[in-house]
Design brief:
The chain is mainly α. It is built from 16 helices and two strands. A two-stranded antiparallel sheet has the order 1-2.
């Protein structure tokens, strides 16, 4: 990966990490599903009137929008609202890296090297360590919802690859058209009119800042940058970089929502950073097309 693209990846993961505790600021005032609906409505409007629709089939826009908005971010926000600490949420969503690597091998015949496999092992150890060291305030349902969102993110990554979209920013804007209506309907069905009635009084400076950060930094900028990297590089090369998100998420949570990691958490963070350093090194193929070919499972 070129240095400028690596710097872009680090900046994107940093903004995403900060987004988790900043999202919690908004959730203190606004219903999680309604907050997600507003986020994607603002990500789509008024930009769709000025940004030309990307040259991809409508099915990819609809699929990505629903997965991105409803199956991913709505579930993350619900999990945080149920008590999952933002730092832990930023950690759990990173299981998508492992799902994405698996999709890359299965669907795109990509290969995994020994350093990548070792990195996966170290990262998994670090992720489990932080999870076991969490304060235990979250419900099991909240944790489950965030884990499901990790699967959704991995599927969204694959949609980007399959659709072969070139106009990345336009893709994010137009895909954002599709989450708001189902999210608004779900809010009304589950909570009735109360979240809508309370919305005006909930829009203080903290909530407005949270929404603005989610829309323009975490959605417009980050998904443009991330999807650009997915377009330019193999998913197996991009996905592991998302493991930086919980590092930024946990550190930023210390200052924003005062969630302080334990000593074990810091050890786990160090394991994740080591996993990234090892996983980015070149090495002999351990799993992928060449291994299947040698085993006689794939024709040349």
């Amino acid at each position: 990966m070129q240095r400028k693209h690596l710097l872009l990846a680090v900046l994107v993961t940093a903004v995403w990490g900060f987004n988790f505790p900043i999202t919690k600021l908004g959730l203190a005032h606004i219903d999680p599903l309604l907050l997600t609906a507003i986020r994607f409505a603002l990500a789509a409007f008024p930009w769709v009137f000025f940004v030309k629709r990307p040259n991809v089939a409508m099915q990819w826009l609809v699929a990505y929008g629903l997965i991105f908005g409803v199956a991913m971010w709505a579930l993350i926000n619900l999990g945080i609202a149920m008590g999952v600490p933002p730092g832990s949420a930023s950690l759990l969503i990173q299981f998508s890296a492992f799902f994405t690597l698996g999709w890359g091998v299965l669907l795109f015949r990509e290969s995994l090297s020994w350093p990548q496999l070792i990195g996966i092992g170290l990262a998994a150890t670090g992720l489990v360590g932080i999870l076991l060291g969490s304060p235990g305030k979250a419900t099991s349902t909240g944790f489950l919802l965030v884990m499901i969102s990790a699967v959704a993110w991995s599927i969204g990554n694959i949609i980007i690859k399959i659709s072969k979209v070139k106009e990345i920013f336009a893709f994010v804007v137009w895909a954002s058209l599709f989450p708001p209506i189902p999210l608004l309907l779900l809010t009304w069905w589950l909570q009735g009119a109360a979240p809508f009635d309370d919305l005006a009084s909930a829009m203080d400076s903290s909530a407005l800042f949270s929404l603005a950060f989610q829309v323009y930094a975490a959605t417009h900028f980050c998904y443009w940058g991330w999807n650009f990297l997915l377009r330019e590089y193999a998913v197996s090369k991009v996905a592991p970089l998302s493991l930086l998100i919980p590092v930024f998420g946990i550190v930023s949570s210390i200052f924003i929502v005062h969630q302080v990691p334990s000593g074990w958490d810091w050890i786990s963070i160090a394991l994740i950073l080591s996993a990234l350093a090892i996983g980015m090194k070149k090495g002999r193929v351990a799993l992928g097309r060449e291994v299947r070919r040698k085993a006689g499972l794939e024709s040349s």
